[in-house]
Description:
This protein is α/β, with parallel strands linked by helices. It contains 15 helices and twelve strands. Helix 5 (120-130) links the parallel strand 4 and strand 5. Helix 8 runs parallel beside helix 10, helix 9 crosses helix 10 (230-244) and helix 13 (303-314) packs across helix 14 (338-351).
Amino acid sequence: xxxxxxxFFKKLLLDGQSEWFYQLPxxxxxxxxxxxxxxxxxxxxxxxxxxxxxxxEIIAHKHPTCTTIILDLEDALxxxxxxxxxxxxxxxxxxxxxxxxxxxxxxxxxxxxxVRVRHAAQLEKIIHLLGSLQHVITGYVLPKFNTxxxxxxxxxxxxxxxxxxxxxxxxxxxxxxxxxTESRIGELLAIRTLLEQFEPLVLNVRIGSTDIxxxxxxxxxxxxxxxxxxxxQNCLSDIINVFLRDNSPFVLSGSVWEYFGNDxxxxxxxxxxxxxxxxxxxxxxxxxxxxxxxxxxxxxxxxEEFIDAKRIVLQSVGEIGVEKSIYSNKMNEMKPHFVxxxxxxxRAQVYGVLNPEYSSEHLLKRPVEV
Length: 370
């Protein structure tokens, strides 16, 4: 196939500002190596599956910096809209497949496309409905993932991959069993054990803080982050502990930010992403296109982070245990910081590395796409 693959900050690079980067972001497609692709989901934009213009928008590159779209059959639809959503989902993917067949667009130019279903029975129905159109998508988002229906979900997707499709699962941790203190740890450990059995299939583990808040009747304001809600923060802490420890193969993504439309909303989003990053989360669920550029900008790697990470990996052979950083402002310990360094280098591959005189703030000062 011709054309060019997706790449973070592609528009910036096409505008001739590659000098901002010490290392350019890599190109990727849905067929890229899974170890790298799990970092490429980035800002995952939810769209109700009932929207009739999704295919036209993708073909026209309406949101050129968008790398992931999730076609939602769950919370974005009322219960009475589900039938229409399933029908329009088919029409959207049929239109995209037709555009591919007629070379109006190429698969590597398309965002990663996922379908969020409501439950395992609907996933079975959607698989049957879509058939060969599943070549257009990258996988399925699995809400309220638990040990009861999780195995069925994953077996269904596995069965499709044996037929020649390339499909991934993105389970969402957001069930009542996770919210309740007395059942949380047991359920999280059981889910991790299940996902480890299907690890090659699992692209991201996503955190559904909105549902967790909903079980408790809570909602953060535009001035707060999800980490300011004490019961939710405790829940997030346990999820992170279970899924990111022991050099885990899993990538956790950040919760949706609900506010948009003004500078205050974007400042709140950036503040929450800072805390997401600090806690090891990569990427974020979003519900408005104005969030795309902010999420991508916040995950670019600084020159200092990159040099530290490279040095830690290089010196991990055991000859030394600790050394002063090249920037002479911290101590790098080879064993404690090794996993951090490996993950940072993967992020650097995907999002790129800025030159020393640049930071995420330079990217954030660019006009926000709406």
